[in-house]
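MODEL INPUT / OUTPUT PAIR
PAIR INDEX: 1
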Amino acid sequence: MKQFKAIIEDVKVDTTKIQPIIVNFQNGELKDEEVKKISCGLFHDQREDQTVLALSDGQTVYKGYKPDPKTQMTRKMLVFHNKVTGKVRLVEAELWDVSPVLQKPVIEENKNDVDDKIAMLNKQFGSKKVKRRTEQYEKLKVNVHSVKDQLEKTVSNIEVNRVDLSTELPNEYITNTNLPSCNREATNVKDVYNIYDIIPKSKLETLYDQAMEILKGNIDGKPKFFTRILRTIQSDPDNVNKVAMLLYIEATSIWFAMPMKDAKKRDVVVCQASKEVNTHIIDTYSVLSASGRLRPNTIKDKAIIHSLILALTILNYTLDLESFRLMLETRISLKKLLDLSKIIGAVPNKDDKKIITLKIPLPAPVPVVKKKRNSINKSNQ
């Protein structure tokens, strides 16, 4: 082969124009006499938003998409030699992979079926390398449906305790972002929290009518904890307000016990006695997203913290957590309740850890992280 020496005088690269295309047929190669019969064209696929090359030999249609230049390791160049002037031109070319279109896509075909047909063509008409690659690919394929059936049979007899699925917050990671305004300088326990920071007084008063009916004895369907509290506050001068708070706790619990598919529906009712309270609970204890209302764990913690403060207020700042836990419609562990109680400043009794008390002076706020971790952070600063 005769060799030439050359000096590159100029290089022009224009990626905005259509470059010469070298076609690689995935199912084999065309014979020389078949190349002359090929017609081709460039089109824009609106669904994929890509440039597509279509080829046809009169019987079979082939197509392929423009390769991404970012994934190309090298540039392919075509060499044109002018024998008269002796000059050589280097023109950048693109390598496109095309595959046969097995069926007119009037109805979008299942991708798995298309892959199977392409594999069949590769094994019948492809090169040795293509055949070997296709066989290796088929060996690695997994039948999703059979695996799904096996998994369903495996887990069908497994029982899961929902209590174990609740998010347990270690003490060192509990934050107080969901805590209402807390007066740590208060000299009277009644002044530590203002319940109207949890629910405005005007909204709580809309529950007074039902509260008075309950005090008259209309307590059908109420849980034991509810009726037990009624007996203790029956002679309380503020009993109407306290029953209204109890109804608020009950409605909040119903909201979190409701399945997510029902919670996303419009006109959800968790408090039949008051539309204002119903709206307040849903707006306060949920967040809006593109898929509808959501109730993340942080929002659930906020609701339980508010309910704990209201329950302590109703019962003169001493609360049996086990009875309170059983009243809640949503499942929660006793340990989680103890962790949340520490956030609001309540402390467990020495004789019975299940009973908590809110008293003056309040203990130190629960740290966000351990002191050990704090020291590590300081050393890294």
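PAIR INDEX: 2
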Amino acid sequence: MGALDYLSNFCTLTSTRSRRKPMQTVEIKVKMDCDGCERRVKNAVTSLKGVKTVEVNRKQSRVVVSGYVDGNKVLKRVKSTGKRAEFWPYIPQHLVHYPYVSGVYDKKAPAGYVRNVVQAFPPANAPQDNIISLFSDDNVNACSIM
């Protein structure tokens, strides 16, 4: 039976059909000054294959695209309109533990948003944190020698 299985691998037809892209939401920051800019960006993105919804917020300079699309293709299409665009770099302020650390707070951010920094502080279980907490006044079992 092993020989038949081995030979059957050569006889099977492999399909070159591409898999469907997963449903995702892409957020892009685009500077839009007027209704014409807004309309141009919206029409460019709407014509992409797989796009389900497009939301344009000129006040926040934000475009949200949902559908079976690739984020890089959406960004490239927005840039083809002549606008300067980048992926949305901001997250809501209440999701960040320390929103006023240098590098997180941005004056250009919309109200209630801060820059998305991966991690401003080392994790709590880092070795340096454990050593520092040994000699802390808050830790009652810190040093029994004294």
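PAIR 2 NOTE: The first helix runs from residue 2 to 11.
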